[in-house]
Amino acid sequence: MSVQDLSEAVGLSPTPVSRRIRHLEETGVISGYCALVDEEALGYGVTVFVSVRLDKQIDTALEQFEKAIAELPEVVDCWLMTGNQDYLLRVVIAGLGDFEKFLVGSLTKVPGVASIESSFPLRQVKAGITRSP
């Protein structure tokens, strides 16, 4: 949305709107801008949530796992978790055959992985980029 369109929507002139946007960027409230990409339109129609437990939860094991995951393009999101699992991954692939290749050829070969549990979502109920005030 342009500054002009935003200023009209909030009932302010473009100058204070631009100043407020710049302040939000400088203070880190706005951390960047992005394009939303339809993964399915790119041929990646399958999403899998994968929970991973490591054999050790020490700093070096976590760092080694995170470094390995950063190199896998199929892993779109990776979260360090509390509870029974150490990490939650969102894996995006073209189909089940590709997931098998990823699982057997990549994820199970990452040092320190003790167990893997996969869940296939049926449909997305709610989507958002971030929480607003």
Short structural summary:
With 133 residues, this protein is α+β, with helices and mostly antiparallel strands. The protein has two domains: 1-33; 40-119, Lrp/AsnC effector binding domain/regulation of amino acid metabolism (RAM) domain (Alpha-Beta Plaits), CATH 3.30.70.920. It contains four helices and four strands; from the N terminus they run ααβαββαβ.
User: Low-confidence parts, pLDDT < 50 over ≥5 residues?
Assistant: none
Determine the number of helices (DSSP H or I, runs of at least 4 residues).
4
Name of the level-1 CATH class of the largest domain: Alpha Beta
Largest sheet: 4 strands, antiparallel
Radius of gyration: 20 Å
Distance between the termini: 19 Å
- The total tally of domains equals 2
Beta content comes to 15-25%
Mean pLDDT: 95
Helix content: 25-40%
Supply the CATH superfamily name of the largest domain.
Answer: Lrp/AsnC effector binding domain/regulation of amino acid metabolism (RAM) domain
Query: Major sheet: order of its strands?
Result: 2-3-1-4
Strand elements, count: 4
Structural class: alpha+beta
CATH architecture of the largest domain: 2-Layer Sandwich
**Would you list the SSEs in sequence order as H and E?**
HHEHEEHE
Under CATH, the topology of the largest domain can be stated as: Alpha-Beta Plaits
Shape: elongated
